[in-house]
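pasting input
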Amino acid sequence: MIEIQKTYSISDLAKEFDITTRSIRFYEDQGLIKPSRRGQTRIYSPQDRVRLKLILRGKRLGFSLAETRRLFDLYDADRSSAAQLETMITLIDEKKIHLQQQMEDITVVLMELSSVETRCRSELKDLT
Amino acid sequence: MIEIQKTYSISDLAKEFDITTRSIRFYEDQGLIKPSRRGQTRIYSPQDRVRLKLILRGKRLGFSLAETRRLFDLYDADRSSAAQLETMITLIDEKKIHLQQQMEDITVVLMELSSVETRCRSELKDLT
DNA sequence: TAAAAACTTTACCTTAACGTAAACTTCACG
DNA sequence: CGTGAAGTTTACGTTAAGGTAAAGTTTTTA
């Protein structure tokens, strides 16, 4: 059985994720994606596409590209030495703490926004 | 009964929140805080302090200063016209949707990190 | 096969959010 | 009373994350 790997052009991905090709090339520049080439032309694999998705998710969470790269490197890392593994666990814990803080912040802000919204709606009703 | 309002110097706040005085002055420049003055010297009220706290929370959530300012303006806004109130509700809803998306992202990433961490710990155990 | 469409590199430009330095004023205190 | 700490303004520098433009190649497609 022959496996056929779907591929994407740079503008396929740009369209799909609604970003510019410039951004995609920039992410490559920063070492976040490494598409293969046919001649000079970049060819993106499904794996590359997943990476891109992860980059964008990271951005939504306020990660810098450098941080996201850090996480990718962690993920790809050499998992043979105990030292490496321990560094990795430490970094993961740091990230987790940060994200939990963010969750709390979001919860609070969401409640506050809802409360302001409720007041707005009631004032709006009183205005009629 | 006489109310005594506690005040803070710029470096009080800088120390408390572990930021530079430069940042605090910059936030003022961008219209996010408006401390009073004694001569040239800035005097911060408890309300100013709260604002600063909110700015920093916004930053943790990935808000730009401009966005945070937007939210402050919303909050302080003239609440007399129906149009104003409707704009406000719309903006609040947008923010809420954005934050909910962020919550989902965080939940997913936290689970993924935990899973990687578990694998790390088990590999670490096998190494001994 | 000619022209349009998509791709490439190189290089300079832009914005946000401060950092840093200079030059000056104003207090607190030993 | 001078001196050091903390405050001020002004202004230029820096970094991240792209935008934009030029100039060239390759690939489609009418």
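fyi Residues 20, 22-23, 26, 30, 39-41, 64-66 of chain B lie near DNA strand C (CB under 10 Å from a C1').
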